[in-house]
Design a protein that fits this description.
disordered N terminus; Class_I_gatase-like; globular; alpha+beta; Rossmann fold; single chain; Peptidase_C26; Putative peptidase C26; 8 strands; 30% strand
């Protein structure tokens, strides 16, 4: 996925094997990862979610980022340091490995993330 956003904020809700900002690796044949991630303080993701630190998410993928591009900054991790979200600050791209579009009814941070994304692209 090459960005041509020209300064328009972008939120990628699912990182998959087509992303060329990092090498995606098969981590597990099946199953899910822990239901919490650690959001990096003072990141755009923390700002858009209205939180930093530990939050509950619904990450249930069998792939993860093994090697992140030097252009990208990791902004959320599992407790074993698996990257669950990254940002490309220059292009205003945030990619998360969970589903805020599903969580928004039960997790305030998911609704806040979606609202702030919509507000950012509306400017």
């Amino acid at each position: 996925m090459r960005s041509s956003t020209a300064g328009v904020p972008t939120c990628v809700l699912l990182v998959d094997s087509t992303v060329d900002y990092g090498v995606v690796d098969q981590l597990r044949a099946s199953g899910s990862r822990p239901g919490v991630v650690i959001i990096r303080v003072q990141s755009h993701l923390a700002e858009w979610m209205g939180v930093d630190g530990i939050v509950r998410v619904n990450s249930q993928h069998h792939e993860g980022i093994k090697t992140l591009s030097p252009l990208a900054r990791p902004v959320a991790f599992t407790d074993d340091r698996l990257v669950e979200a990254f940002a490309l600050e220059v292009e205003r791209i945030i990619a998360v490995q969970w589903h805020p579009e599903v969580l928004w009814r039960c997790e305030e941070h998911a609704l806040t993330l979606l609202r702030n994304f919509v507000a950012a692209v509306s400017r």
